[in-house]
Amino acid sequence: MDAQSRGRSDDIDPADQWVLNPDTGDYELRLNNSGGDSAGASQAPGPRIPRRREPDDEGNGGRRNTSRDGSGERRGQSRRDGQESGPRRDVPAQRGRRSANGPRGQEGSGRGDTAGRRSRKAPKARRKKALLWTGGVTAFVLVGLSVGVYALYQHFNGNLNTVDVGSVGNKDVITSDAPVNILIIGTDKRTGKGNEGYGDKGSVGHADTNILFHVSKDRTNATALSIPRDMITNIPDCTSKQPDGSEKVIPGTQNIRFNVSLGQDGRDPGCTMRTVEEITGLRPDHFMMVDFNAVKELSTAVGGVKICLAKPVKDKDSHLDLSEGEHKIQGEDALAFVRTRHSFGNKSDLDRIKVQQQFIASMIRQMQSDDTLTSPTKLFKLADAATRALTVDTGIGSPKKLASLAQELAKVNTKNITFTTVPVLDNPAETVHATVVLDKAKADPLFAMMREDTSLTEVKAQKQAAKSKQDALLKGTKAAAADVRVDVYNGGKVPGAAQTTVAWLQNNQGVLKSTNKANAPAKTDKTTLEYAPNQADQARALAAMMGLPGSALKQGTTDAEGLQAMVLTLGADFKGAGIPITGPAKVPDGIQQANADKAECAK
Per-residue pLDDT tens for 378-393? Predict the structure, then answer.
């Protein structure tokens, strides 16, 4: 058979070459090179398959007439040595050549006889042959796709770099019904071609750009909180995995820049995650870390990122040289844009943060655009670049887990993604202000909003649901302070919190029937107040004193008896006696905000 005929020998229909072997249940490719009469001596090669008995056909001697011309002979069988072939059937042979003079389906033996001539097949038989052919092709394609997908998975899986951060984070958060906190870390490590010339080429990779991306429980909104690298803070003790598998406890450091929470003294991203939790009270579930090279590769993979400049920029440090107006940048220009700090605002890191937020917001819009989502080439380049560029924790350290996380993040509409920055003040300990310190008056309410999963954008349905729930639990009669009975447990991180809270309740609020029960059986993220139905007035009174949100109140099913007390368990969100746990309903004045759905020009 000519290889160029792709499955045909002369006029042999390929449908006749894919046949079902009833003994194995598989389709087989049968190549009969003779092309002779189907009723002739050239029988289809291969094993003979026992024929299943057919139901008797009346008037046919107990045998079913299966021939097309009513002769009683079965197609594909011949007599050998004058004997019947017996009750057996061969795997069907391929169809013979068409006659030069006769219609399709007739044999052209050249002998002038009609004994071996095949009559035209019924439509049903042709459909069956077509189904056999289609089934064979479909099976081949499916196998091919499976191999391709597996190879693609292995390719992307081989790209990823992972870090085991131990007990930090939450490995099950992707599928759980909970908010998601992703810490995005941009390091100043000069890895990659051409990056050695940027500043400190020997940097171990500090936490240069930091964004805590908080996605709400119902996936309707998200808040991207930038943390200034030059903010003075306390870095807690942390445990870092060593190359040999052992663990090393790295002592904490007081009053130091945030950016040394990574790289310095061997600190890994888990140390940065712990530092963020210490500052905000929000526990990062996962981290994603990128370096200089990642910015260049990702911006190129999406086909460029649109930016806008309110004035021309020519920066000798970052090498950014662009005119005023709109541009689409990628590669080296994209890296230069996010690194520039002397060309915008007051030339501080805080103004560079705003520029970086604009760039990331534009990249998000580009990734979700039809231009990207409908292009298989761009999607492949983006997935390939992302997996090569990212270093992640082992909790999301596979393409499948990253895809699951991406599906959750993609549920958020870009118009409900808000960028903001941790409120800070110039460091009063410096005459030349090179660093900043936390502005607690503004930061604490902002952190509380995020901990309470309160959107910084107007998400009407969520706000109404939260308001309705709190109204139902917090509104109503309140018991007198002297009638409130409560046992206080410490399930948070503030040492002695139960004792200080009881002292505050008794001395400042008049709740004399409060008792310190010391440490709770287990640590907890959220402060809760458990009470019986007939203690609802006491619960409302205590919630008002403590500043507890409605979500903290947990009502039991049976009434309290006698002198039974309520149970107040202080969680990680507890900051101190007299400090309200609940966050404000709207963003406090003076908080910087930018919406991901709106393009702004860098000034």
Answer: 888 888 888 888 899 9
The answer to whether residues 343 and 295 belong to one domain is yes
Asked if residue 145 and residue 188 are part of one domain, the reply reads no
> Going by C-beta distance under 8 Å and a sequence separation of 6 or more, which residues neighbour residue 588?
442, 445, 446
b/e burial code for range 558-573 (CB count within 10 A of at least 16 → b): eebeeeebbbbbbbbb
In a domain? residue 299: yes
Pairing of strands 286-290, 48-50: unpaired
pLDDT digits (tens, 9 = 90+) for 420-449: 999 999 999 988 878 999 999 899 889 988
Q: How many domains does the chain have?
A: 3
Distance CA 35, CA 46 (A): 16
- For residues 289 and 411, membership in a common domain is answered with yes
Task: Mark residue 134 as left, alpha or beta (left: phi above 0; alpha: psi -120 to 50; beta: remaining).
Answer: alpha
Give all strands (DSSP E) within 245-371, no chain letters. 247-250, 253-257, 286-290, 305-309, 313-314, 321-322, 325-329
Residue 302 and residue 378 in contact, taking contact as beta carbons nearer than 8 Å: yes
Give the Cα separation of 155 and 144 in Å (integer).
Answer: 16
Under 8 Å between Cβ of 491 and 571: yes
**What DSSP state is assigned to residue 114?**
S
Q: Enter the tokens of residue 530.
A: 């458990």
Q: How far is CA 261 from CA 97, 132, 237, 308, in A?
A: 79, 64, 10, 33
Sequence-distant (≥ 6) Cβ neighbours of residue 362 within 8 angstroms: 305, 306, 307, 599
Q: Beta 161-163 vs 88-90: how paired, if at all?
A: unpaired
Instruction: Judge whether 336 lies within some domain.
Output: yes
Please report whether residue 576 resides in a domain: no
Phi, psi for 58 (deg, rounded to 5): -60, 140
CA 395 to chain centroid, in Å, comes to 11
Could you tell me which residues come within 8 angstroms of residue 271 by beta carbon, excluding any fewer than 6 positions away?
235, 238, 240, 250, 261, 262
Residue linked to tokens 């007739």? 106
Question: What's the token pair of residue 410?
Answer: 């993609």
CA distance 71 to 98: 22
Other Cβ atoms less than 10 A from the Cβ of 459: the count is 19
Q: Is the pTM of this model over 0.85?
A: no
Location of structure tokens 């309200």: 580
- Give the Cα separation of 19 and 186 in Å (integer): 59
pLDDT at 110 over 60: no
**Strands, E assignment, 47-104:** 48-50, 88-90
Which helix (H) or strand (E) covers residue 208, if one does? strand 207-215
**Which CATH number characterizes residue 167's domain?**
3.40.630.190
